[in-house]
Specification:
- The protein is α/β, with parallel strands linked by helices and 418 residues long.
- It has 2 domains: 80 residues, no CATH class; 320 residues, TIM Barrel (Alpha-Beta Barrel).
- It is built from 14 helices and 12 strands.
- An 8-stranded parallel beta sheet has the order 3-2-1-12-9-8-6-4.
- Helix 3 packs parallel to helix 10, helix 5 packs across helix 6 and helix 9 crosses helix 10.
- The chain is globular.
- The relative contact order is 0.15.
Amino acid sequence: MTKPIEEAYTLAKQKYAAIGVDTDAVLEKLSQIKVSLQCWQGDDVLGFMFPDQALTGGISVSGNYPGKATTPAQLRADLDKALSLIPGNHKVNLHAIYVDTDEKIDLDQIEPKHYEKWVQWAKEKGLGLDFNPTCFSHPKSTDGTLSSNDPETQAFWIEHVKRSRKVAAYFGEELNQTCVNNIWIPDGYKDNPIDKMSPRVRLRDALDQCLEEKFDDAHMLDAVEGKLFGIGAESFTTGSNDFYLSYALTRDILWTIDAGHFHPTEDVSDKFTAFLPFGKGLMLHVSRPIRWDSDHVVILDEATTRIGETLVRNDLLDKTFIGMDFFDATINRVAAMVIGARSTLKSLLLGMLSPIETLKDAESTGDFTTRLAVTEEMKSYPFGAVWEFYCQQQNVPAGTEWLTEVKDYEQKILTERK
């Protein structure tokens, strides 16, 4: 522990203690939070099953920064480096296309054995794993997946999702922590459809078939993720947020909220407390939209800050799984992972450093003057000193020191990749 950081923390600790916040207890609580780091930031969402397949499903990655991972071993090395610079103990989120096998298989043939190397790596590193069926970038995803009106196509995707759930349950059982299996499909229409009911009925029935097999919640939980914006589905998205909200409530599964899948003027964090009085739980994908679902690298902006504060202030962390979902190839991909995850953790820390009970008491008695005055004063409190102390406490670099490590990794490793 460097002396300047320790001294700054001591002063910050005293200042927060004066308003009833125990920073030591806060950091202990923050250390228990797991953020799921998305593997697809490391290779531009290509995976290793069909690496030459063009991205489809309304997904696009900008940029061509050198050093993209092209093998599972390279991607794991990049994740290792990123995780070594993010305080705490976390998880990694895999898509089905990130198999590590020499077998030539299709999506309707995946099995736990095709991900054994990922599980072994996770065990060695003490990590958890989450999972996602990959219902895009495939010849059979061109005209719809689970909502397709072609029985053969729909059957293919139902089988894929069924197998994905088994892989996810395998992850949870082997790693002794819950794996969230998040289902997202790109189905929809570019222009106005006449029949909006039939595709959604087909999707509902297909999902019911996918979820027929029951698994232990301790090993695997299903989640469904809606969308608003998507290239090629501007006029109609079959699996919209409203559809999946209803499905999650009636099937007792998780509802996934992606911060980029709503209208830019919506406050995503406000949806947490609207859903959780009724729902089983949330899968949260932290992203940063700019005008639409553009999946920019997460920063500590107002939207991200509100997400962290809302989860903490309303005691929702036990019912929420937090994951990252962005992909940017215009900058160093490892740095992008670190920036996004650290920013998300900072938003949670900001929430934890608030005198929450004091503010709630003021609010409940109608003292809105105190509520506003205190929340505004908190914005200039020494949050940064607490964050830097936490980083060093967790044996990761504080400040921008981590960037030096990423730059060194880039020179020694990333620039050597072809």
